Fold these 2 entries.
Entry 1:
Amino acid sequence: MLICVGAFILTFSASNLWFSSLIRFTLCGAGGLLLLSGLVILTCIDQDDERHNFGHAGDTADQEFIIILLLFEIVRVAAWVRVSVWLMIGVLIYTFYGRRHSSLLNAIYVPKAHVDEIYRSSGATL
């Protein structure tokens, strides 16, 4: 709770310019102290080492297979089809429209070594 309240006070007071600077700095300091104290308390809490051994110590490939299997079980096939179709539509739009109508299509690329020379010779009218 200290972290959430501290972060809220810190961001709220730092982003509101209608506070006077003294009030803003005071609230930022108080929010920062709350945030820091919450982080220190979380660091000092003795945590159970068993949290690292959740599940089994199996192979990573087994775990990835289980995740993919869960994704296919949870998300319906129709949703995968819709995502795939929209992804292909986006790729087609990018390929056939975006690349031909890009504002950078006719851009002139100059090596960095020549930029200062071009700027000086143009009379600084850029």
Entry 2:
Amino acid sequence: MSTDTHFAPGGPEQIVYCHDEPSGLRAIIAIHSTALGPSLGGTRFYPYASEAEALADVLNLARGMAYKNALAGLDLGGGKAVIIGDPAKDKSEALLRAYGRFVQSLHGRYLTACDVGTYVADMDTVARECAYVTGRSPENGGAGDSSILTAFGVYQAMRACAQERWGAPVLTGRRVGIAGVGKVGRHLIGHLTEERAEIVVTDVNAAALDWVRAHHPDVRVVESTEQLLALDLDVYAPCALGGALDDAVVESLSASVVCGAANNQLAHPGLDKILAERGVLYAPDYLVNAGGVIQVGDEAAHLHDGGFSFERAKGRAARIFDTTLEILRRSKADGVPPAATADRLAEERMRDVSRLRGLLLPG
């Protein structure tokens, strides 16, 4: 990706490369927008094949966070960080604390949190060097695991999709295929089990599938996403990494609803239109998975007074049902895909509020 791309209209405000040789830290922080306030987004720890791949991912994720926070009604901009490496092998106290010092050097322009490969305990370690950390443990004044409300929000969006598609916000008896049963997927299984949906899951991690077999013996487990997609599904829920909806998947998809927790599900622009043309109801990913950021947003608003309230955050995450329904119905009325409708609403809010705020400076 050329440098010119970063200065194009709609590009990020800031890209920060972080390198600490003694600890082995190699990270990139991308601040897409501070139009609504400090940029908030998680830290992904992942073994990228190259620096270019890591950069492309962090830029996409940061942009998605800006839209997610705007659509969720938060006074927060969008940012993201990626740490290049295998968290099972490369993660250490020294590395996380070095990373925390880089986040601290931005003086609040970026607030970090958990993401793929990072956990509450990691955020507690980062916070030993940094005052701008959310997703910390309750014993350290934080909100704890944000995947709980992420899954709750996905479930609310799925109910809204059922309302729009089948006339009632009910998933009882519907076959839901979940690709990815990590932190979020596990909690989503719980919600769907309570509603007596028929659940089929897969994951590239054999240990994750073993967990499902042990805790939810009634849930069907298949060994690959290909096997999952070959089934006759009502709802497909991508809950792993991005790019789950590529041309081949979109062409062969049996599900009439796509609603999952993964970020950046569309492999390239235009696939949302193809989904709509095929009659598939696609709930925009950054709308669907906003429950977690609503939680850490509440924590961020009370970083220094310990006033986080899980019930308050859950009540706000429940509104994802109403927002999803509004976007689906507006999309139908305007004749444009739901993703385009969601983008418009997020962009309008960022544009209108940014006129009042201007650029957020450090300090």
